[in-house]
Amino acid sequence: MQIKPLSNHILIEPIKEEEKTKTGILLPETAEKERPEQGKVIAVGPGRKTASGKIIPLDVKAGDKVLFTKYGPNEIKVDDKEYLIAKEEDILAILE
């Protein structure tokens, strides 16, 4: 199944953080973990529409690695894979 975001929405595949602490302790799967804040853009919508009907394209594109707000994007699950759908306003930076 393919997902095509609408308007100024962005489909993001979250990048899982390391499974161990800085001191080298491995964290089990059952450990409570923070929601990821980085991800790879999979697809983007056409852009935001102005009052006059003009479409303003998004600043991000598929393949970009982005930093986003922790609780802004909505979680979805497609074919047993987890994704996030965020608005352009939820994207804080493109990581290079």
Low-confidence parts, pLDDT < 50 over ≥5 residues?
Answer: none
Secondary structure tally: strands: 8
Determine the number of helices (DSSP H or I, runs of at least 4 residues): 0
Shape: elongated
**Which structural class do you get from the secondary structure elements?**
mainly beta
Measured on Cα atoms, how large is the radius of gyration? 15 Å
Structurally, how many domains make up the residues? 1
Helix content: under 10%
Mean pLDDT: 85
> Which CATH C-level class is it?
Mainly Beta
In CATH terms, the superfamily is GroES chaperonin
In CATH terms, what is the fold-level topology?
A: 10 Kd Chaperonin, Protein Cpn10, Chain O
The helix/strand series, from N terminus to C terminus, equals EEEEEEEE
How are the strands ordered across the major sheet? Answer: 6-7-1-2-5-8
Please state roughly what percent of the residues sit in beta strands, choosing from under 5%, 5-15%, 15-25%, 25-35%, 35-45% or over 45%: 35-45%
Largest sheet: 6 strands, antiparallel
How would you explain this protein's 3D organization?
This protein has 96 residues and is mostly beta strands. The chain has a single domain (9-17, 30-95), classed as 10 Kd Chaperonin, Protein Cpn10, Chain O. Helix content is 0%, strand content 40%. A six-stranded antiparallel beta sheet has the order 6-7-1-2-5-8, with no helix packed on it. A two-stranded antiparallel ribbon has the order 3-4. Strand 6 and strand 7 form a beta hairpin. It starts with 8 loop residues before the first strand and ends with a strand.
